[in-house]
Amino acid sequence: MLFFFLGLFSITQATEELYDYPIIGIDLGTTYSSVCIFRDDKVEIIPNEYGFKSTPTVVAFNGTFLIGEEAKEQGIINPQNTFYDIKRLTGRTYLDPNVNRVKKGLPFTIMQENDKICIKVSQPRNKSNKIFNIDYIQAKVLTKLKNIASSYLGVPVKNAVISIPIGFNDIQKQATIDIAEIAGLKVVRLISEPNAAVIAYGRDYVTEKTNIFVFDFGGGTLDIAATIVTKQKFEEIDNSSEMNLGGEDFDFNVVKYLVDQIYNSTGMNLTDHKKANQALKIEAQKAKETLSSQEIAHIRISNLIEGYDFQYNLTREKFEEVNQDLFDRVISTINSTFIVSETQIEDIDEVILVGGSSRIPKVQEIVEKRFVHSKIIKDRIQDELVCIGAAILANSLTKQLEKQYRFVEIKRTAISYGVETDKEDMNIIIPRLSRYPLVLSRFYTTIEDYQTGISINIFQGESEFTEYNEKIGNFKLSGIQKATKGVPEIEITFALNQNGMLTATAFDLNTKSSSQLAIQIKNKKRLTQEDIDNLRKENEQEEKLDREKIQTISKLKKYHMQFLNDIKKSKYKYALGESQLYEIKEILNTSSKWLEDNRYKLQTTTQDFQNELQNLKNSLDKILNRQQLRDSNQDL
Ligand SMILES: Nc1ncnc2c1ncn2[C@@H]1O[C@H](COP(=O)(O)OP(=O)(O)OP(=O)(O)O)[C@@H](O)[C@H]1O
Ligand SMILES: [Mg+2]
Prior knowledge:
Elements: E1 3-7, E2 23-28, E3 32-39, E4 42-45, E5 55-56, E6 59-61, E7 65-67, H1 69-73, E8 82-83, H2 97-104, E9 109-113, E10 116-123, E11 128-133, H3 134-153, E12 159-164, H4 170-182, E13 186-192, H5 193-205, E14 210-217, E15 222-229, E16 233-242, H6 247-266, H7 274-290, E17 296-305, E18 308-315, H8 316-322, H9 324-337, E19 350-354, H10 361-370, E20 375-377, H11 385-396, E21 408-412, E22 417-421, E23 425-430, E24 435-436, E25 438-446, E26 454-460, E27 470-477, E28 490-496, E29 502-508, E30 514-518, H12 519-522, H13 529-569, H14 578-598, H15 606-635
The chain binds adenosine-5'-triphosphate and magnesium ion.
Residues 29-32, 87, 193, 218-221, 246-248, 285, 288-289, 292, 355-357, 359-360, 383 line the site of adenosine-5'-triphosphate.
């Protein structure tokens, strides 16, 4: 039943909670993720097992999970089981048009199960399919980052600040918190990506009050924020976000263009050829990056499909033409930032360019043309700025601070919150760009005589009609005063916490009946607490299995690499002749080759690796024993 608006509200602020050290900062990016820690009065970017500052946001499944570098590396041979771009699906429903669009460009199978988006993986070995919730897959990346940090710090890490795109609505924020929980991490705070970047930048480079425009153009989203920054304070003035605009879209456009070129020149239609598309995608991304510093990129893919070698020279001019639609969207996103705010483009002192896609020359040109009065900072920008900012905020939330960098944070909502009133109108309670945390109430009444209950639908969005906004929750208030329409007085209160997430309550002023909704708990499309607990346990179990597989593989690798050296240091140093050494080398080479072929194979299990290791040891021992026997016979 519907109801309409009567009158207005009140405001309050929430206090800050503190947590145990260490709290890590995580930038969970669409394409790359990183993890940082504040230690000894500075932020350390924690390297992954290969020494890299960022880890690909890629997960593969080949019986067990591969995460990061290894998952990305085998993507080309195993496209159907290599998952990326999942952040673009976070907190969405399967029928969301954005999901449909993203899904089309991905080589793995996205499906719906129990209202949730899942990935289907076929397992040829036991002829069955495996289905994974996408939150579970994302949790694998967070698990990896958590483990990288835990081994670096030498203590288990449990708390994190995670950065998210500005445009994430409450469901997407809650999804991020749930994903972390599956990975065994408590999110002590979410921070928007550009805000994190500007905190990091302000700390190192700002000496006096400066109006900074952050332009964070990553793999999946464009996030921008106009801020006023001093060393100790940052205030968000305005913000804007394009949720489906990032480096991946440039790659998709280029792939589409190349597929058309191949069709025109050979008549072959590769639109649905997953392996070829994956190979083209990898090369398109490389070409795009090359074109940021060069005028031409040479794309060469041998055996793109059976017997067909592909070559194409992509010019920067053609790249810009193919992606014109994306550049136009960049312009309109920048322009939308200054429509309502008091700060205008001329007031911006510095523009900081963050995110890999802001290296595209045409993007820089757009920014330079728009901000003629501002200093454009593009040379001091580290890829990890967002993560560094998250770690600085994390440090300020610890109980046992090392040395604290104190700052005041003034954040503003990116999307309006409201309720649906009569005729499906959106009645806004918290407008866009409100400072938060805050609590606001509005008063409503009934539209029918003797109505005793109401159903309250909560939406986020800017349209005056709920149809075009995102429904983020629903709850009911019963026990309303039995009276003619317009008489009951119902107070609806929206409270935004430090993460900018909503708790809604409704209260009948006359009967004192009340009802409360924390959006995150009641949304049917989301995981329940029970689902999360089960997935967390499953993840812990798999972490154990994955560790076993990785350990077996590294033992095998170690054998391949070290055995000959170890021999040279052992008592067999002089005993082994040329022919035995040759035999050993052959055995090691064959086993290395086997490992290379099987490392990423779906069918090869931990047991297979263990068997290979055991067989290798047996064969090598046999040679050594033979030698020993011969030596001892000679001694006789
Ligand atoms: N030199 C370059 N020229 C053009 N694009 C680049 C360059 N270097 C990196 N990129 C692109 O930047 C994107 C990755 O940027 P970044 O790591 O900032 O994104 P992300 O943090 O993973 O994504 P998001 O913040 O959108 O979730 C990729 O699409 C990559 O191809
Ligand atoms: Mg990013």
